[in-house]
Design brief:
Blueprint: E1 6-11, E2 20-25, E3 28-35, E4 38-43, E5 57-59, E6 62-64, E7 71-73, E8 79-81, E9 90-91, E10 93-94, E11 99-103
Bound molecules: FE2/S2 (inorganic) cluster.
Amino acid sequence: MSEASTLTLCKKSDVEEDEGYKVDTEGLSLAVFHVEGEFFVMDDLCSHGPGSLSQGYLDGYNIECDFHAGCFDIRTGEVTAPPCMIPMKTYKVVDHPEDVIIEWPES
Ligand code: FES
């Protein structure tokens, strides 16, 4: 089993509180969210269709896709409102004072 390495996505200061921020890197398209000093990362492409979750509406820990208004919990990727049915992939964020870093690839 290989040990997970890390991937730096952006500066924490790039991500406005209660807004989504899109990062394309290493073939991944990711949505970064900032809520009350904590950062959360999930795949950007909605599991229901072409919606970009970084462009959605964030309310607390709930992100509403701007395409058909389906919702997910940004902490777990779980569906919180239809028409979405498939959970989103989330990434573990590594503690760092300035940068948003995820564990990647996951082992
Ligand atoms: S594409 Fe996101 S809810 Fe349909």
